[in-house]
Write a structure and sequence with these properties.
Elements: E1 2-7, H1 12-24, E2 30-38, H2 53-76, E3 85-93, H3 96-106, E4 111-115, E5 117-118, E6 125-127, H4 129-137, E7 142-145, E8 156-160, H5 169-182, E9 185-192, H6 200-212, E10 217-224, H7 228-239, E11 243-247, H8 251-258, E12 266-268, E13 274-277
Parallel strand pairs: 1-2, 1-4, 2-3, 4-7, 8-9, 8-11, 9-10, 11-13
Antiparallel strand pairs: 5-6, 6-12, 7-13
Length: 278
């Protein structure tokens, strides 16, 4: 039984992320926890305005519970709804990251699924500060689903890396499970700004990947491009990639693909879901 946490702000992109997760796990028994978090309100000065429990119930929680009930009713009416999928609503009055981390520990969450907001008229998805915070601060495998992404069978997974870091078995295991579950090909993508040979440490880390995914359809690809994000975009489109995976702790390389001038804003230029490994 998989336990999936799906934070929602009741937007269309959040619902799309939930629908993607349902389709992805169509053949597996799952508990889907749909979470809405109302952030703590800072009024002014040094104090934080905290509502009483009674006021929270009257002014906020009851209304949100009704919205969540309507959302889950909508989900249960989907043609892809399966009997082995169960849905539970969660309402918190807290900081988003604290709430997500609490439920990850309490409910043994296997995957967090977040939707993204689209930039109108552009082929660019801007992942808001909430999703950016989750990627950086929540140590649980996270699936980022762009607003216009629609589930298709996972046949090709891209794994951009610079081979600079050692990846633990615990970190790589969700990716191995994904490859095993979908029988997808894994395309390890090394991108450098100029042609250079791998050093001994990078060669060791590459060998680890070769050993760990030895039973998979594993291929290595090497590209040279001054802009890493452009190279990833080109590779994803040319190979018809269905999902991109990356290890979050490889932050320097991670930032070149996702983070631009402001760390709190992420530019993500594709409609392909992004799996963040921790």
């Amino acid at each position: 039984m998989k336990n999936i946490l799906v934070p929602t702000d009741f937007s269309e992109n959040a619902f799309n992320a939930l629908q993607y997760a349902i389709d992805f796990y169509t053949n597996e028994a799952c508990n889907f926890y749909v979470l809405h978090v109302k952030p703590v309100i800072n009024i002014s000065g040094d104090s934080t305005y905290l509502l009483s429990t009674q006021n929270i119930e009257q002014n906020y929680t009851e209304a949100v519970k009704l919205q969540l009930e309507q959302l889950i009713k909508k989900v249960n009416e989907l043609p892809t709804k399966k009997a082995h999928h169960q849905f539970f609503s969660l309402v918190d009055y807290n900081h988003l990251i604290d709430s997500i981390n609490h439920h990850i520990n309490e409910k043994s969450i296997d995957l967090v699924v977040m939707g993204t907001k689209g930039a109108s008229g552009l082929k660019e998805v801007i992942i808001g500060s909430n999703t950016g915070d989750v990627i950086k601060k929540v140590h649980c495998t996270t699936l980022v689903v762009p607003e216009n992404a629609r589930f298709t069978p996972i046949k090709e997974v891209a794994f951009p890396t610079d081979f600079s870091m050692f990846y633990s078995i615990e970190t790589l295991l969700p990716l191995l499970n994904l490859i095993y579950k979908t029988k997808a090909s894994l395309r390890v993508l090394h991108i450098s700004k100029k042609e250079v040979d791998l050093d001994d440490s990078q060669k060791d880390n590459k060998s680890l990947l070769e050993d760990f995914f030895a039973e998979s359809d594993l291929n290595f690809h090497y590209l040279t491009n001054s802009k890493v994000e452009d190279a990833v975009q080109c590779f994803v489109e040319s190979r018809d990639i269905n999902m991109i995976a990356m290890v979050a702790k490889n932050l320097n390389y991670f930032q070149q693909i996702l983070f631009h001038t402001k760390v709190e804003k992420i530019s993500y230029h594709t409609n392909v879901p992004f799996l963040v490994l921790h």
